[in-house]
Amino acid sequence: MYFFRLVMIMIMLGSLNAQLVKEGSKAPGFFLFDTNNNDFYLSKNLEKPLFINFFNTHCSPCLAEIPDLITFYNKHIDSINMVLIDYAEFSFPFVDRRETVEDVQKVMERFNIPFPILMDNYGIVTKAYGVSDENPNVPTGLPVSFVIGTDGKILWVHGGRTMVEDLEKLEKDYETIF
């Protein structure tokens, strides 16, 4: 069953390589598992705008922004959904070891993260969003954040550590959401 799901993901995302991800474009659809092996479909989680943050547990700016993301989420819990997507391929660049669910669960416990962390073990979703490619509209490297509207379009893209000031500007620019 897992292999079938992986093949379906690859087929679904394979056609997205030509799509240029940017603000205003349709967000690439995806399906991933969270750290508890629950499935997460983008299409089933757009009843509210969705804040997505691509991160890795070995990325210092990624870890530094987590408390601010949690505060933002708790402030807007009724108006947004939030997920972190762990780009496992990014980790351990000098060691022949890929990041594991256990690594991510330690971070979840450390920060008491109230929203799901999805495991992008093969970097398929990360690449579909242009985070790891040369897309002039999406900053390369981690962390990178997106807000996707209920219509499935990308409203906001932010590269680098998301600071409180960035989140305040997001609130002001999209006050109809927040």
Beta-strand residue fraction: 15-25%
Largest sheet properties: 7 strands, mixed
Q: Which architecture per CATH?
A: 3-Layer(aba) Sandwich
CATH secondary-structure class? Alpha Beta
Mean pLDDT: 86
The CATH superfamily name is Glutaredoxin
In order across it, which strands form the biggest sheet?
Answer: 2-1-5-4-3-6-7
Percentage of residues in helical conformation: 25-40%
Low-pLDDT ranges: 13-18
Order of helices and strands: HEEEHEHEHEEH
Strand tally is 7
> How many angstroms does the end-to-end distance come to?
39 Å
Structural class: alpha/beta
What is the approximate shape?
globular
Treating each run of at least 4 consecutive H or I residues as one helix, how many helices? 5
How many domains?
Answer: 1
Rg, Cα atoms, Å: 15 Å
CATH topology: Glutaredoxin
Question: How would you sum up this structure, described in words?
Answer:
The chain contains five helices and seven strands, in the order H-E-E-E-H-E-H-E-H-E-E-H. Helices cover 31% and strands 20% of the residues. The chain starts with a helix and ends in a 5-residue tail after the last helix. The protein has helices spanning 2-14, 60-75, 101-111, 124-128, 164-173; strands at 31-34, 39-41, 50-55, 81-87, 117-120, 144-148, 154-159. By secondary structure, the chain is α/β, with parallel strands linked by helices. It has one domain (33-173): Glutaredoxin (3-Layer(aba) Sandwich), CATH 3.40.30.10. A seven-stranded mixed sheet has the order 2-1-5-4-3-6-7.
